[in-house]
Amino acid sequence: MIEASYDDQPPFFFILSQEGLFRLTSAPGKDFPFSKGELTLLAQRPLEPGRTWQSSWSDPRLFFEVLSRGPVTVAAGTFRDTIKIGYRPATDPIYSGFIWIHPGVGIVAQEQSNDRSELVSYTLSDLLPPAEVEAGSEKLAALFQVFHPEKGESQTSLPISRKVFNWLDESGVPFSFFLVLLILFFTVIYLIIRSGGKEIDLAEDKAVTEGELTLCVAMVQDGLFEEASEILQRLSTNHPQWPDIAALLGKTYLHTGRLEDARLELKRALTLNPDMPSVRLDLARVYLDMEDPARALTETDSILASNKRFADAFFCRGEALRALGKEELAIEAYQESISINPHFRKAQEALEKLLQESRE
Predict the structure, then answer these.
(1) In this predicted model, what pLDDT tens digit does every residue of 78-122 receive, in sequence order?
(2) Is the entire prediction scored with pTM above 0.70?
(3) Cα–Cα separations (whole angstroms), residue 130 to 17, 38, 151
(4) Which of the chain's termini has less CB crowding within 10 Å, N or C?
(5) Complete edge-to-edge strand list for the sheet that includes strand 62-74
(6) C-alpha span between 74 and 72 (Å, rounded)
(7) Distance in angstroms (rounded) separating the CA atoms of residues 336 and 274
(8) Which of 214, 150, 144, 210 minimizes the C-alpha distance to 179?
(9) Residues 206, 208, 211, CA angle at the centre, nearest 5°?
(10) Contact at 8 Å (CB) between 324 and 354?
(11) Please, which residues have CB within 8 angstroms of residue 74's CB and are 6 or more apart in sequence?
């Protein structure tokens, strides 16, 4: 076992097994042997691109995939044969973090929620490396009494909060979506109580509309565009003067391929409230998808005229300039986007691709 820690945080441990690399942590307030802690399988052999596995001892259960092998540069230097691994909750389609592992060194970088940590320096010891244990995940979990979300305690012995979280995990319902539904439910109950038993028109109540709009925001964040669109269409009919409703409806149309409807709704939102740069950016994306980069460029320039630190707007400007055949200006736009947000992966990939094309 290799002990590691960050600042004043409780230590955690790495275990090198023939199955792969494990990370062992204890639950808050728990000491060795980590009863009810977590055992995460960070890397499962063979580590080749496309390899996938799940870490069932994590809560929530995590899904891992080997994305690529190649060079990576960190503060400690450039490592040529580095394995990039993406991970996410098993019920979420979007990767929440990435790990870069070098076979001869270990973890050289980790990134999650736009926070990145890198290896600063290292020394290769002439001592023997840690021996690989033969135990797999099941044996290690039993040895350290780690809680298994699926096989650990019986459902009847779990507290109600744990039962809810387990149900959300198994059913695939995003927690943010569940939370907004809960808020909306209690809002309706409050309004009924406040009405003193009188009939009220929930469709016209501002608090209910705001609750439904908040629900739709959570649905869009979780990729439920069709479902959110149905609610937003009704809200738009009842409240045609709400720019936020029109803006969000336009976004759902953008993500479902209804480009002309998206353009109309986003233009309506900007007519109601011109000071909505994120909506103008969505409109620029619509124009790009409609193969009208000149109009997309006009929208991004309008955003950047008042906000020079909008990385997404510079990226979209680069996409429009590239479509117009202005490669040099596109490179400058991508570089500006990366200078504002050094972890802007899409901008980095677009810049590298354009530079490669220009060299060829």
Answers:
(1) 988 899 999 988 777 787 889 999 887 888 999 887 678 888 887
(2) no
(3) 10, 22, 30
(4) C
(5) 52-55, 62-74, 77-89, 97-102, 106-112, 115-118
(6) 7
(7) 25
(8) 214
(9) 110
(10) no
(11) 100, 108, 109, 118, 119
All domains in the chain, ordered by first residue: 2-151 (no CATH), 174-274 (1.25.40.10), 287-360 (1.25.40.10)
d(CA 12, CA 58): 14
- Using DSSP, state whether 303 is helix, strand or coil: helix
- Reported in sequence order, the residue ranges of 90-215 that DSSP labels E, i.e. its strands, are 97-102, 106-112, 115-118
Q: Which DSSP letter does residue 59 get?
A: S
HEC secondary structure over 274-299 = CCCHHHHHHHHHHHHHCCCHHHHHHH
Q: β-strands 62-74, 77-89: how paired? A: antiparallel
Helix (H) or strand (E) holding 207: helix 206-221
Give the N- to C-terminal CA distance of the chain in Å, as an integer: 49
How confident is the model over 278-299, as a mean pLDDT? 95
Q: Is the dihedral of CA 150, 156, 162, 165 positive or negative?
A: positive
Specify the amino acid at residue 222.
D
Q: What is d(CA 197, CA 235) in angstroms, rounded to the nearest whole number?
A: 25
Residue entry with tokens 């990435």: 98
Is 133 in a helix, a strand, or coil? strand
| β-bridge partners, 280 | none
